[in-house]
Amino acid sequence: MDVVLPDHISALAEEVLWPAADDVDRGVLPVSKQLDRLASQGLYGAALPLQAGGLGLSEHGFRRTVEVLAGADLTAAFVWIQHQGAAKRVLRSSNEALRDRWLGDLASGRVRAGVAVGGVRPPTPTLVARRDGSAWVLDGTIPWVTGWGLIDVVLIAARVIDDAGTGSAEQDVVWLLADAPQPVGDTTTQIDLDVPTMTASRFQLVALDHTRSASVQLDGHRVPGDRLVARQGPEEWAAADSAGLRTNGSLSLGLAERCRLLLEGEEPALSSAIEQSRHALDTAEVEDLPAARATAGLVAWTAAGRLLVARGGRSVALQDSAQRLAREAMVLQVFGTRPPITRALLEQSAAALDATVSITG
After folding, report:
1. Which of 114, 128, 137, 338 could form a disulfide with 147 if both were Cys (CB 3.0 to 4.6 A apart)?
2. What share of the chain is helix, strand, coil (3-state, %, to 5)?
3. How many angstroms separate the CA atoms of 176 and 168, rounded?
4. What is the pLDDT of residue 189?
């Protein structure tokens, strides 16, 4: 489907984000400056309807926006896309008071959100929640949270256990909108949050390092009961988690499209691969999404490699955008994956190797 985005989105991507992306990657320009620009253009409400204070984009329009921003500055887009997931869950919450309190600020970017979902995935949950009066108490590890120092709240998913402290991966999932403490200290390995019940161990990433991503340990961390966004049974949660695989595929497509633009010539094969991958993602049933996501990742990986080769030796100089895009493609190969996506990636890459061997043989 051909989607025409509002002019200000394309202009922001090409005139503001892309020219500064290498500086953001190196830390010369704080990513917070670019996130402020996204907020000033209403893009923190990109996933929300007009009546909620958002841009009112169609689903296809939102996905194309993800592509355009990812192809312009993946560091900024990576932080920004977490917010979109949180905003959409608050929009769908049955907690009317919570919606009234937070949705407008989330739509405008006055409040910026991250997402912490990895602690509830099978086979064994690493983050659990129990009721204590009206509050929820969290214990365990969140494997990945992006945006410390760049977000105000974080939407945390945790498995519910009973008062005796027992539970299993088959139990309900609660979504809680918790405060994200602002760092008071920072090293290459640690983010000091000055909250005794929360410890953040920072990742050093080959790309997107300035997204300030970390694993987080929670020890008796309390979240007020009025911050409950949703409670889902195991089947409802699993279905929603699988359906949510589509959006992250747009990050890969955006990076692949940027590589195509930087390559000289028409690149018909790459253009076709991007279009076919987009169509596969848009039309896939839930059970087919892992393979479609894997394909999008491989298209981005291949596009970045093609750009490196086309540019030759200069492409590996740190001031060249090609090496940054290649490092970003590496991260997208493993970001947001599940075992079915990993299996599909390995199968597809093995098939490509087999095809190469058969040609050369």
Report:
1. 114
2. 55, 20, 25
3. 19
4. 84
In the numeric block, the tokens 């949270």 are attached to 145
Task: Tell me the C-alpha distance between 68 and 41, whole Å.
Answer: 14
Looking up tokens 């953001």 gives: 24
Beta strands in 224-279 (DSSP E): 228-232
Which tens digit of pLDDT belongs to each residue from 219-265? 999 999 999 999 999 889 888 888 778 899 999 999 999 999 999 88
Question: For residue range 82-139, what is the model confidence (pLDDT) as tens digits?
Answer: 999 999 999 999 999 999 999 999 999 999 999 999 999 877 889 999 999 999 999 9
DSSP 191-203: EEEEETTEEEEE-
* DSSP SS3 for 224: coil
H/E stretch holding 179 = strand 173-179
Residue that has been written with the tokens 């869950």 in this structure: 89
pLDDT for 27 equals 95
Residue 193 phi, psi (nearest 5): -95, -5
What's the gap between Cα 161 and its chain centre?
28
**Nearest CA-CA partner of 297 in 353, 352, 252:** 252
Which residue stretches of the chain have pLDDT < 50?
169
- Residues in Cβ contact with 132 at an 8 Å cutoff, skipping those fewer than 6 apart: 222
- Answer yes or no: are the C-beta atoms of 132 and 100 closer than 8 Å: no
Q: Are 87 and 47 in contact (CB under 8 A)?
A: yes
Listed in sequence order, the residues at least 6 apart from 285 whose beta carbon sits closer than 8 Å to its beta carbon are: none
Residue-by-residue DSSP string for 48-92:
S-GGGTS----HHHHHHHHHHHHHH-HHHHHHHHHHHHHHHHHHH
- d(CA 78, CA 249) in angstroms, rounded, equals 12
- 59: closest CA among 48, 70, 68, 69? 48
- Angle subtended at Cα 191 by Cα 37 and Cα 134, rounded to the nearest 5 degrees: 90
Q: Which residues on adjacent β-strands are paired with residue 136?
A: 131, 223
Tokens standing for residue 329:
């493609």
Q: For 36-47, give one letter per residue: b (16+ CB within 10 A) or e.
A: ebbbebbbbbbb
